[in-house]
Write a structure and sequence with these properties.
Jelly Rolls, 5-stranded antiparallel sheet, 4 helices, about 20% helix, globular
């Protein structure tokens, strides 16, 4: 019995897939593995690195790049320069997100699908001040399917706040999404994260972490074996 318990624990700890193994069946791009899995560093340009696994590519006239929450500043500026690049709460964007470079009063980001989808959703952050964002969804024939406009002051917007955007059940599948932000009295960028490439969900699910769970089971199995052996040793008569 003890041998079986040990074998089961060892088997689970070895056969549970790694984060890289579950990547192809995941629909969420949260950029948390941009460094470990895709070899990107803060400031690196993001284009087609996610195409093979998720079927999407990114482009921007201002350049779309990887940003890490906190200083040094690559993305948005927090109120009075505090908490730069950091959402409120910080857990909403995790450690990494996509940003366009701040170059002027206009920011643009285009998302192109290899195969059209029926739904999608994502976060944009720090819609505040005199800012207006427009998000448009297009069909494979370049027909405009839907438009959403987000203006600073709308519910769910504000300094360092992540605002959820989504589309579903349109007249045709979505092949391209165009985002643009305008700020007339300064520079603007697009802080983008928690992109579910095929579902319109209200909030991003937690990032899957299967390995720690398997490790916990493994430790529990070893602990159980140790306690069983300890109890047997206590029960042995003294000679």
């Amino acid at each position: 019995m003890r041998a079986f318990l040990l074998t089961a624990a060892l088997t689970v700890s070895i056969t549970v897939p790694s984060h890289a193994a579950v990547q192809p069946v995941n629909t969420l791009i949260d950029f948390e593995n941009a460094s470990s899995f895709y070899g990107l560093e803060e400031g690196d340009t993001i284009t087609d690195q996610f195409l093979d696994d998720f079927g999407v590519s990114f482009s921007s006239p201002q350049t779309s790049q990887l940003a890490e929450q906190g200083d040094p500043l690559y993305g948005f500026v927090g109120s009075r320069g505090r908490a730069n690049d950091t959402t409120d709460p910080a857990s909403r964007f995790g450690n990494f997100f996509l940003t366009t470079i701040f170059e002027g009063p206009l920011a643009e980001l285009e998302i192109t699908y290899a195969d059209p989808v029926d739904a999608l959703s994502f976060d944009i952050a720090d819609v505040d001040g005199p800012e207006v964002f427009t998000i448009e969804a297009y069909s494979i024939d370049a027909v405009l399917l839907a438009t959403q406009t987000i203006t600073a002051g709308d519910p769910g917007t504000g300094d360092r706040i992540a605002t959820r955007v989504g589309f579903e059940d349109l007249a045709a599948p979505i092949s391209r999404v165009e985002l643009s932000g305008v700020r007339h009295n300064g520079t603007i960028g697009i802080a983008f994260d928690n992109f579910d490439v095929s579902r319109n969900i209200a909030a991003p699910p937690p990032t899957p972490t299967p390995l720690p769970g398997a490790f916990g089971f493994f430790v529990s199995g070893i602990a159980g074996l140790w306690w069983a052996r300890r109890g047997r040793l206590k029960a042995l008569p003294v000679t």
